[in-house]
Every structure is written in structure tokens, then in C-alpha cells.
Specification:
Layout: H1 11-77, H2 87-158, H3 164-173, E1 177-179, E2 185-187
Antiparallel strand pairs: 1-2
Helix pairs in contact: 1-2
Amino acid sequence: MARQADIREVKAVGELRGRVVESAETLARLVDDCNSTMRRFVDWVTRDRASHWKSELRKRDQKLQTARSDLERAKIARPDADPRSFTDQIRALRRTKAALEEAQAKSRACKRWGVELERQALLLRAGLRPVSAMADAELPAAVRWLGQLEQHLQGYVAEAPVMPDALEDADAATPTASRARSGEVVNDPKEPEQ
């Protein structure tokens, strides 16, 4: 006779179902957080930093123009003076040129990295799409399946199973007859004839 199913803890299926629900919610939240964090970072580089360095370019260009005019005014004020006497103005002009070049480099970097970050963000969203689909479709389907399994197992456990010993006793108490190939009823050879 076949062995009886050994079902002891139907609650374990319910606990697993609860953990799958929690995992699906956590996974969906993490995917959303990842996408929104990437979007904020791309926006920070392409909008915030780009506008900041554009503004800095204007300011530093204005400072460069001021430093040039300061140097020219100093040269006009003392035309016969030694060129070394304009050291402060020349240093200021070099500092403002370096600051302007830095702002130009940062502005170019924002444009370059903005394009690259947009590309990487698309790749990230494409990579997260299967994970998101799993959290949105496959895990809820698994939760439904586990719920049905739990119900079926509870129904199975609620029914009183027939014990194997009781089946053997019932078989021994009733005489069995079988049919021969011709269709005649023939007594079981194990039973004595009466």
C-alpha cells in the first residue's frame, strides 16, 4: 500500500507566504528607491551643477575682465614704471584666468558626464526591469499559489485519513470475487470454498 503523506506543519506554508509578501514589497520599494536615486543624481549633475558652473563662468569671466582692466589702468597710471611693479595685478590676472579655466573644465565635465549618466541610467532601468516584473507579477502569483496550497493542505489535514491497518482488516473481512477472462465470477483462490 502507498505511504500516507506526512504533513505536520501547514503553518509553515503560511509563514513562507507572509515572508514572500514582505519580500515582494521590499523588493518593489528598493527598485523604486534605486530608480529615484539615480534620477536625482542625474538631475543634480545635468541641472544643478551645470547651472552652477554656468553662473560661475559668468562671474569668473567678469572677474577676469576686471583684473585685465586693473592691470591696464596700473600701466596707464605709471607708463614709465618697471614692469615688475605690476606684480600684484599680474598675479590677480593669473588667478582669475586659472579660476575661469577651472569653471570651463567643470562646465564641460558636467555636459560630458550628464550624457554618460543618462546612458547609465537607461541601462540601470533596463537591468532592473526584470526584477521589477518579478516583484510586480511573479511574487504575487507565488503568494496566491502558496495561499491555495495552504488551503488545500488544511483541507487534507482536516479530513480524517483512513489508517492502513483499518484498510487491511476491512479487506480481510469481505470476500473478494474476480472475473475470469471469459466473464465468469471466480472465487479468490486464497479463500476456502464453502
